[in-house]
C-alpha cells in the first residue's frame, strides 16, 4: 500500500475544521500545522496524486537510457510545454512535474510576455524547487515604508523570527552562521563545502570587499539529519544534485518528504486530489467563507467541501485566480476585495544578469562529486549608502566549475584522440549572477480574462507585467558589478551578460509574489498581519500572494514562516470561537 493512500477522498459532507487549497510548499505546511493543532483538515489539490519515491520516475535514470539523452521531444515540448520548457529544470527526467500549458493556458497583452511556471500536482513546486532558503531581515520588511514604494509591511522581522526557527528545525537547512545584519542566520545543519577555486575566490573577496562576504548557499538539504528527520524516513543528502527529479532519500524538503507525512501521522488529514477549486463559498449572512466549490479534473463534475476556516495556498497566482473567481453581491470583484487591490502589485525577482570568466592557476586542483547549492554574496547594494540609479538591492550567486567530459563531450572529435582529449579536465570557470528585488507596482497585475476559459471552464488569468526602469538599472548594475568583482579577483576573459525581456520575461525567476497583499489598512490591502482577510475573518491567504515586497532573497522560507504563524493564530481564534 502506498504511504498516503489511506487519506484520499473524493467527496464528503463533513464540515472540516480547515480546508487548505493547494499542496505545495505552503499548503503542506498549513495542513501539517492545522492537523498537529488538533484540527480535522482537508487538503484540496487540483493535480494528480504523486507518491513519495514510487512516482519519481526520472530519478536514477541515466541520460543514455532516455530516447533523446534527457532532452524533451521537440514536438511534445512545443505542443504542451511552450512556457514550462523555458525553465532550466525542465527536461525528460522532470517534465511530468511541470504544468501542461495546453490544458492550462493564460493570456498576456501583446508584447508583454510573462512566463508562468507551475507544478500542478500533489506536492506542487516543492518537488522541483531549487531549495535555496534565506531569512529576510528588517532591511526588507522596512523597505516599503522607507522609500514609499508599496504599502508598509504590517510585520517586522521580530514577528517572524521564532516561526523561521520552527520551520527550519523541521525542514533542515544547511548553512553556516555568518552574523550578517542583512541576512539573519537560520538554525543550521552543516554547510556544503567550497571547491578549491571558490575557496580561493572567497578569501580574496572577503578581504577586498568587506563588509560584503561570500558565503555558501543555504539550502533545504539534510547534510546531517537529526533524530526527527530520521524518524520521518528522511536520510542524508548524498549531493547527487539530481533533486528536481524527486529524491527517494527525502534528503531535500518537499511536501512528500516532510510536511505531508507529518500531517498524515496525526490521523486528522484528508486529501482530495484532481479537485480544482473553482471558488470559495461565502455566506453573506455570517460574513464567513463556508468551504470551496471544486471541479473534478477527471469527470468535470462539480462538488462542494465545507469547513470552518479556509486557507488559500494555491501559489501566488493560483490563489488570486480563485479569489477573483469567488464573486458575490457583497464582493463583485473577488472575495475580500473591498480595497480593490486584489490582482495588483505583482512581483517576481530580477534574474538574467551577471558575468563569468576563466580562472587560471588551479590546473592541478580537481574535485569529485556534485553539490546541490552554490556560493552566494548577500546583498551589499543600498544597505548603508544609496546607488544613484535604482532603489533596493540584489544578491550575487555563482560557482566555479571545471569543464569535464560532459561539457567536452559536446566538442567535435572522433576515436582515440577524442577519448584522450575528453579524459583531461578542461579549464576552470567562475561566474556570478544577480537575483534582485522588483518594486511593487500597481500596474503589474492579473485579472480574469473576460471570455477565455480553460478546458474545465475556469476563466483564464490575464497577466500584465513588465520590468520598470528601476528594474532595468538594477540589472545593469548586477552585470557591471559582477564583472568588476571577477576582474578584481583575477578572473580572465570576463564576459558580461544581460538577458533581454524576451529571453527572461517576468515570471521566469519563478518567485511570483503580491496580488493579495498584507497591510495594516483594509482600504489599501487584502490581508492583515496574520494573513487573514480584512473583510472575511475565516479566510487566510498564506502563499506569495500575501507579500508586500519581494526583497532579494529566495522567498519560500518566508512563505513557510508566514504560513505557520497564520496557522497558529487561526487555530487559537477557532478555539476562542472567533472565526
Ligand atoms: C525550478 C524551480 C526552482 C525554484 N527554486 C527556488 C528556490 O531555490 N528557493 C525558493 O525560495 N523558491 C524557489 N522556487 C519557488 C518555489 O517553488 C515557490 O515559491 C513555492 O513552491 C511556492 O509555494 P506555494 O505553496 O505557494 O505554491 P506551489 O508549491 O506551486 O503549490 C501550489 C499548489 O496549489 C495547487 N493549486 C493551484 N490552483 C489550485 C486550485 N484552483 N485548486 C486546487 N489546487 C490548486 C497547485 O496544483 C499546486 O500543487 C523554485 C521554483 C521552481 C519551479
Ligand atoms: S543532492 Fe541530496 S537531495 Fe538532491 S537528489 Fe541527491 S541526495 Fe537527494
- Ligands (ions, cofactors included): flavin-adenine dinucleotide, iron/sulfur cluster
- Measured as a percent range, the helix fraction is 10-25%
Order of helices and strands: EHEHHHHEEHEHHEEEEHEEEHHEEEHEEH
Q: Uncertain regions: pLDDT < 50 for 5+ in a row?
A: none
Please state the overall shape, judged from the principal axes of the Cα atoms: globular
Quaternary state reads single chain
Cα-to-Cα separation, first versus last residue: 38 Å
Q: Which percent range describes the beta-strand content?
A: 15-25%
Give the rounded overall mean pLDDT: 96
Quickly describe the structure:
This protein has helices at residues 25-36, 74-80, 138-141, 143-147, 157-171, 196-209, 227-231, 255-265, 316-324, 405-408, 415-423, 469-488, 556-575, and strands at residues 15-21, 41-44, 173-174, 188-189, 215-216, 269-272, 275-283, 288-296, 302-312, 353-359, 375-377, 394-402, 428-436, 445-453, 459-464, 492-498, 539-541. Helix content is 23%, strand content 18%. The structure holds flavin-adenine dinucleotide (FAD) and iron/sulfur cluster.
Amino acid at each position: 500500500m502506498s504511504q498516503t493512500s489511506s487519506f484520499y477522498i473524493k467527496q464528503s459532507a463533513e464540515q472540516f475544521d480547515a480546508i487548505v487549497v493547494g499542496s505545495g510548499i505552503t499548503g503542506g505546511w498549513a495542513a501539517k500545522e492545522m492537523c498537529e493543532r488538533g484540527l480535522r483538515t482537508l487538503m484540496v489539490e487540483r493535480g494528480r496524486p504523486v507518491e513519495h519515491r514510487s512516482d519519481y520516475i526520472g530519478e536514477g535514470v541515466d541520460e543514455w537510457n532516455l530516447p533523446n539523452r534527457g532532452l524533451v521531444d521537440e514536438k511534445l515540448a512545443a505542443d504542451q510545454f511552450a512556457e514550462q520548457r523555458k525553465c532550466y529544470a525542465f527536461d525528460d527526467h522532470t517534465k511530468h512535474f511541470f504544468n501542461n500549458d495546453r490544458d492550462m493556458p493564460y493570456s498576456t497583452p501583446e508584447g508583454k510576455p510573462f512566463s508562468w511556471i507551475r507544478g500542478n500536482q500533489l506536492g506542487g513546486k516543492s518537488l522541483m524547487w531549487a531549495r535555496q532558503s534565506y531569512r529576510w531581515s528588517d532591511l526588507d520588511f522596512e523597505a516599503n515604508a522607507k522609500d514609499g514604494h508599496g504599502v508598509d509591511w504590517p510585520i517586522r522581522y521580530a514577528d517572524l523570527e521564532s516561526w523561521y526557527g520552527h520551520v527550519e528545525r523541521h525542514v533542515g537547512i544547511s548553512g553556516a552562521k555568518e552574523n550578517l545584519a542583512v541576512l539573519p542566520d537560520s538554525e543550521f545543519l552543516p554547510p556544503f563545502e567550497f571547491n578549491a577555486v571558490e575557496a580561493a575566490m572567497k578569501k580574496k573577496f572577503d578581504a577586498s570587499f568587506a563588509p560584503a562576504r561570500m558565503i555558501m548557499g543555504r539550502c533545504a538539504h539534510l547534510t546531517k539529519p537529526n533524530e526527527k528527520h530520521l524518524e520521518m524516513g528522511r536520510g542524508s543528502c548524498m549531493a547527487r544534485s539530481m533533486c528536481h527529479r524527486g529524491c527517494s532519500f527525502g534528503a531535500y524538503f518537499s511536501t512528500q518528504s516532510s510536511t505531508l507525512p507529518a500531517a498524515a501521522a496525526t490521523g486528522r488529514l484528508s486529501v482530495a486530489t484532481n479537485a480544482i477549486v473553482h471558488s470559495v463559498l461565502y455566506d453573506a449572512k455570517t460574513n464567513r467563507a463556508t468551504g470551496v466549490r471544486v471541479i473534478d479534473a477527471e469527470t468535470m463534475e462539480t462538488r462542494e467541501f465545507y469547513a470552518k476556516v479556509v486557507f488559500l495556498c494555491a501559489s501566488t497566482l493560483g490563489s488570486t485566480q480563485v479569489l477573483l473567481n469567488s464573486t458575490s453581491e457583497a464582493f463583485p470583484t473577488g472575495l475580500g476585495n473591498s480595497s480593490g487591490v486584489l490582482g495588483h502589485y505583482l512581483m517576481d525577482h530580477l534574474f538574467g544578469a551577471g558575468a563569468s570568466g576563466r580562472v587560471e592557476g588551479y590546473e592541478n586542483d580537481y574535485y569529485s562529486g556534485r553539490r546541490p547549492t552554490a556560493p552566494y554574496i548577500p546583498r551589499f547594494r543600498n544597505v548603508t549608502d544609496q546607488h544613484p540609479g535604482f532603489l533596493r538591492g540584489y544578491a550575487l550567486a555563482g560557482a566555479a566549475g571545471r569543464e569535464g567530459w560532459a561539457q567536452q563531450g559536446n566538442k567535435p572529435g572522433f576515436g582515440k584522440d577524442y577519448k584522450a582529449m575528453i579524459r583531461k579536465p578542461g579549464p576552470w570557470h567562475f561566474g556570478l549572477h544577480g537575483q534582485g528585488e522588483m518594486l511593487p507596482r500597481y500596474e503589474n497585475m492579473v485579472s480574469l480574462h473576460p471570455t477565455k476559459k480553460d478546458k474545465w471552464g475556469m476563466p483564464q488569468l490575464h497577466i500584465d507585467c513588465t520590468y520598470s526602469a528601476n528594474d532595468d538599472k538594477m540589472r545593469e548594475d548586477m552585470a557591471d558589478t559582477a564583472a568588476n568583482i571577477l576582474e578584481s579577483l583575477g578572473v580572465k576573459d570576463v564576459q558580461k551578460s544581460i538577458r533581454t525581456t524576451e529571453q527572461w520575461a517576468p515570471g521566469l525567476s519563478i518567485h511570483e509574489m503580491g496580488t493579495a497583499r498584507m497591510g495594516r489598512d483594509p482600504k489599501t490591502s487584502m490581508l492583515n498581519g496574520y494573513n487573514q482577510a480584512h473583510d472575511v475573518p475565516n479566510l487566510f491567504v498564506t502563499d506569495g500572494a500575501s507579500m508586500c515586497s519581494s526583497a532579494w532573497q529566495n522567498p519560500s522560507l518566508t512563505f513557510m514562516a508566514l504560513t505557520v504563524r497564520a496557522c497558529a493564530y487561526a487555530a487559537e481564534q477557532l478555539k476562542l470561537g472567533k472565526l
